[in-house]
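Input (structure):
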């Protein structure tokens, strides 16, 4: 009997040790740095002055949804090289993508102070317009006067956004029309014009604009989504469902389209 009890104890202790070893292996596995990240980090240690490698690491973190590490990586560079306009631009983009508009604006402003590139000015102008900052109009005028920027349609777009966000929809539509007159495939201008018309209660006109947009670019997912919203407002639920589903066909991750379908009782 005593032998049997001893054997039970031995088996019990063996089981505990086995579980402990397995847990330790799992912990070690969880703590392991992914090969790609390790490769980039090691390369940076070998070539610490390579900004391309640092940007690649930040991009790696960004692609994997680790924005804290991406921003931290960029901040480390800016701590030692605060006049690197490119990294202020990257920092602004990262902040914008996590919804930190104020930090994005500050980073874009710093980038422009160092090296005023048209694409960065456009990005900042759009954020100014979205936050109802009248500096958006000054940025737009600057783009129009700078012939080398070749950004007249973007300048008109910024003005349209500003007026739309400050509830001057009529002026907004005029500027979106100017964008489209310069470039008839400027999808964002169609979208924003349709939104302005929608806000004015001009649903038929909004639908016509969106229909033209998706005819010009049949994979314009936002066009279909806003057509769905407009049709829903016109009490055409079945047609709206078709539009939301088409938006998801081109962008399966379109959250707003999924939410709209769920609201209408359609499971995805």
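Output (sequence):
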């Amino acid at each position: 009997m005593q032998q049997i009890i001893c054997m039970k104890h031995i088996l019990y202790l063996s089981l505990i040790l086995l579980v402990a070893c397995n847990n330790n292996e799992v912990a070690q596995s969880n703590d392991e740095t992914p090969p790609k990240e390790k490769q980039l980090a090691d390369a940076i240690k070998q070539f610490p002055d390579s900004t391309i490698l640092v940007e690649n690491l930040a991009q790696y973190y960004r692609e994997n949804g680790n924005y804290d590490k991406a921003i931290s990586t960029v901040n480390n560079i800016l701590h030692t090289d605060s006049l690197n306009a490119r990294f202020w631009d990257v920092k602004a983009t990262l902040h914008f993508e996590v919804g930190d508009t104020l930090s994005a604006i500050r980073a874009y402003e710093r980038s422009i102070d160092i090296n005023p590139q048209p694409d960065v000015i456009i990005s900042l102008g759009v954020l100014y317009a979205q936050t109802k900052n009248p500096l958006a109009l000054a940025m737009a005028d600057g783009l129009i006067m700078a012939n080398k920027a070749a950004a007249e349609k973007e300048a008109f777009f910024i003005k349209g956004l500003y007026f739309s966000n400050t509830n001057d929809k009529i002026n907004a539509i005029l500027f979106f029309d100017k964008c489209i007159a310069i470039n008839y495939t400027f999808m964002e201008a169609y979208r924003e014009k349709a939104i302005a018309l929608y806000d004015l209660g001009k649903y038929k006109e909004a639908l016509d604009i969106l229909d033209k947009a998706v005819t010009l670019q049949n994979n314009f997912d936002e066009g279909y989504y806003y057509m769905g919203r407009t049709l829903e407002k016109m009490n055409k639920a079945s047609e709206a469902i078709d539009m939301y589903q088409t938006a998801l066909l081109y962008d399966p991750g379109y959250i707003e389209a999924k939410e709209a379908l769920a609201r209408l009782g359609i499971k995805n």
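Notes: Confidence is low (pLDDT under 50) at residues 1-30. The chain is about 80% helix and 0% strand.
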